[in-house]
Amino acid sequence: MQINYNYISNKIARNDIKEYKKLYPKLGKINILEIISLGGLIFVFFAFCFINISSQLDFLNPKYTLYYLLPVSVILTIVLIRVFQGRYNLIKNLRLDKFSASNNFAYIPIVQKPEESGTMFNIMYDHFSYDVIRSKSKRFFEIGNHEYDSGSNENQNGIKTFQFGYIKIQLDRNLPHIVLDSKRNNSSLPVSFKENQVLSLEGDFDSSFTLYAPKNYERDALYIFSPDLMSLFIDELGCYDAEIIDNNLFIYSKKPLKLLDQNTLRRIFNIIDVVGNKTISQTNNYSDGNVAARSMNFVAEAGSRLKKRISNSAIFLIIVFIIVFGFNILIQFIPSVVKLFMK
Question: Is residue 307 within 8 Å of 191, Cβ to Cβ?
Fold first, then answer.
């Protein structure tokens, strides 16, 4: 795949920035209401502090001018940060847009609630993808970053935001659900699968990945991950996790992809070319032996999804519920039992 990286590395002309601003006027603008609200809170905070110590200081003295300038400087700093953030996002979107157009790709700044089969897109809440680059011809692929929260809008307490980067490559056949958890990224996937689905493969593969395959699909997984494909995954994916689900191969980075870094982009497109094409060719003739018409592009229900493991926190809550529920029942029956023995 021949890729033109000029718009990633070359200087962007001012005219291009101006034209892009006209097309997307909201990009790069700061939220005035947000700044005014924040500025008001800062002034109230400093005014409260000043009132509390005003009895000890003469604020009319010029040497205390710093106390007046401090809240102003804080607000100006916030405004400058917002301005630079806005300009950075504008130029980032412009670069990725131009880069995509020059390579006949589509660039989508934000995709709200993307409908993806990948496990990482279907956990927690409030999903959206950003900086999405999609192919428009030949083999379909998509690269981008994704964000989700650990809580919902109804419960804002203790919400954590998580981000990851991903590569999606469309395959020609539906395949069993297989997950490869990399042992090199010091971070397990946020989803736990039952341990009896772990499959050991030959060579150095087990030292690089933990492979999960549905029960009774071990032979299918061994067929898909031939020695040469295993070798490619070890050499090319490095610290990435991977998932085969339906007719897609997802490759996950635990941190957002640096799409303005030319070396990162080169590695991504090398993975699409090398790992993607080899996975496609290796699985072109796959058929599920558990399906009656083996020529059909279909995987039986037992192989289409891995079985998830109940988390430790969920087990703890279940045990606590059982204990509390049992204790309440016991309290209700004790008086009856006592009365029975008192007769």
Answer: no
Residues found in the chain: 343
Question: Which two three-digit tokens encode residue 297?
Answer: 């592009």
Residue-wise pLDDT tens digits, 192-245 = 899 999 999 877 899 999 999 999 999 999 999 999 999 999 999 989 999 999
Place of tokens 């991504």: 268
At 188, list the tokens: 């397990």
Residues 6+ apart with CB under 8 A from 103: 3, 4
Rounded to 10 degrees, the C-alpha dihedral 221/182/115/155 comes to 130
How far is Cα 106 from Cα 3, in angstroms, rounded to an integer? 14
- In sign, the C-alpha dihedral spanning 133, 146, 263, 254 is negative
H or E element at residue 303: helix 301-304
Comparing CA positions, the residue from 206, 146, 162 lying closest to residue 181 is 206
d(C-alpha 94, C-alpha 234), whole Å: 35
Q: How many CB atoms lie within 10 A of CB 171?
A: 20
Instruction: Look at 165 and 43; give whichever has higher pLDDT.
Output: 165
Residue-wise DSSP of 74-111: HHHHHHHHHHHHHHHHHHHHHHHHHHHHHTTEEEEEEE
Q: Which two tokens stand for residue 214?
A: 């549905």
pTM: 0.80
Q: How far apart are CA 226 and CA 198, in angstroms?
A: 17
What residue has token string 């659900």?
A: 177
